[in-house]
Amino acid sequence: MKKQFLLCVFWFCLLIAVPIFGAQAFDATTFTKKCSSCHTIGGGNDVGPDLKDVTKRREKAWMRKFIASPQAVISAGDPVANELLNKFKLKVMPDQEMSDAEFEQLYAFLETGGAGLAAPVTYRKVSEASSYDIQKGAALFNGHLRFQNGGPACFSCHSAGAAGILGGGAFGPNLTRASVTYGDNGLSKVITLIAFPNMTEVFKDKTLTSEEVFAVKSYLFDVDRNTPVVDNSNLKKFFFLGLVGTVMTLVLLDFAFKFRRRKTKRPIY
Question: Has domain 2-111 been given CATH number 1.10.10.10?
């Protein structure tokens, strides 16, 4: 009888423990994938604010709305959102696609204070970078050297300094001042974790190695140091492309029309 009782207690505890610890592990993973590149829990302010006790400082409904669309909340004139915007150097958090179930799990995890969260990683300081590291970072950024795990070159979506004739891709933000925006440790976290919505699928299972992260970071710091003035706006690039394309199209049409007219023209007597 005693054995049966103990066995029942064991199975009851197991049934209770598995969902709790399973949910907690999932929540930690969600935070790591979507939040940890810019935030800490108890580690101090980083790229964004420290989220320790955030559930006590902010209303749950406000958090849900802000996570879904920070820019919309800021544009609506929300005083808390605009205070954070000014405090963190006008950096706007990207919109996060998150289901209600994911948000509830994340919220519950934040309420625990980050229980079970892995210790923060220590990254190499950019002051250790050599000229070789900077050159390797430039080659990786511009696509002259492929990333080990097959990720696309940064140049395909971003621009930095005077890279390329037209300054690189325009899908993502200009990274010339990324070192000022994110700082040494923050830039390493951003490149390592890649938690931005538009990039997570692109770099899924294609994360950069620690050496590649350091090289790209070193290159971006060097770009910032050696680019005093940035005049590389997407508007100017698209205007230039549109102008050149229009001229070339008109020239081709004019040539084709003249050629066709010569062939079909009948002599006049």
Answer: no
Q: How far apart are CA 108 and CA 233, in angstroms?
A: 42
Contact (Cβ atoms closer than 8 angstroms) between residue 173 and residue 195? no
**Which residues of the chain fall short of a pLDDT of 50?**
9-12, 14-26, 165, 230-233, 235
Task: Please report which residue ranges of the chain form alpha helices under DSSP H.
Answer: 2-34, 54-57, 60-68, 70-75, 79-87, 100-111, 131-141, 178-193, 197-200, 210-225, 234-264
Give the alpha-carbon dihedral of 254, 260, 262, 267, to 10 degrees: -130
DSSP states of 78-106: -HHHHHHHHHTTTPPPPP----HHHHHHH
Q: Do domains 2-111 and 126-225 have the same CATH topology?
A: yes
Structure letter (DSSP) for residue 48: S
- The structure tokens listed for 203 are 């770099």
Contact predicate 208/217, CB 8 Å: no
Q: Is the pTM of this model over 0.70?
A: no
Classify domain 126-225 at the CATH class level: mainly alpha
Length of the chain in terms of residues written: 269
* Coil, strand or helix at 258: helix
The string of pLDDT tens digits covering residues 52-84 is: 999 999 999 999 999 999 999 999 999 999 999
**What are the sequence ranges of the domains in the chain?**
2-111, 126-225, 237-269
